Hints:
Blueprint: H1 2-12, E1 16-17, E2 24-28, E3 31-35, H2 44-55, E4 66-70, H3 78-84, E5 89-93, H4 97-107, E6 114-117, E7 120-121, E8 126-129, E9 146-151, H5 153-159, E10 167-170, H6 176-182, E11 190-194, H7 197-201, H8 211-220, E12 223-229, E13 232-237
Parallel strand pairs: 4-5, 4-10, 5-6, 7-9, 10-11
Antiparallel strand pairs: 1-2, 2-3, 8-9, 11-13, 12-13
Helix pairs in contact: 6-8
Amino acid sequence: MRALLKRLKPLAVGMRRDRATGHLYYPVDGVRHFVRFPEEAVRERYRRLWFDQVYFHHYRPSGRDVVVDIGAGLGTEIIPLAREAPELRYIAVEIQPWTYECLCLTLAQLPSGFQPFGLAIGEGAAVRIAPTRTGIDASSLGEGPVPVESVTWSDFTRRHGIERVDLLKMNIEGAEKAMLDHIDLAVVDRVIVGVHDFRADRGEGEQFRTRAHVEARLRGAGFRLQDVTPDWIFADRA
């Protein structure tokens, strides 16, 4: 029965294959949401739950806010946000090439301020990642066969003319510790960041144990912290 339900899930969400690109997609708020595998489709009630109760629970971007999303993944939560606030400047950064391609196809249907970029942000000239079957879990930690361009935070903000960031959203699979140390948080007003101690707890390596460091870094930069879930922290200026 479980195997049958798994096969039926793509049909239940309206999964189709795009003839031009070969990628799969399913409808989300009137937009073709591109994915790599059928199991990456998210039913509406869960999309809404994550949108309202996690990503944008404490702060909902609006107007002409600037959002920088590092580790944007497939961009599921970006679609309804674009419908609510079409004038946003939303800069979506994703290092996994296959995931990034799907993200580009999805964001191409949104207003022009919603822009994807396939690169890493950090000190090095490049990072090397190891693609996984669940590519949205790809991390810049460790080594892999796929090189991805890396730019510094100062170069990134200069390149894109970013003076203030209303919301910095981050889900980068354990690299959040180094990323927050690298970023100039003085230009950031709010942060929503995923921490990955749970990956350390299940034996994937102590490099994923980041919560304590992330909390200390944000408090030291003048933020007040609120837990959203055990694995997500929201911070804004006290």
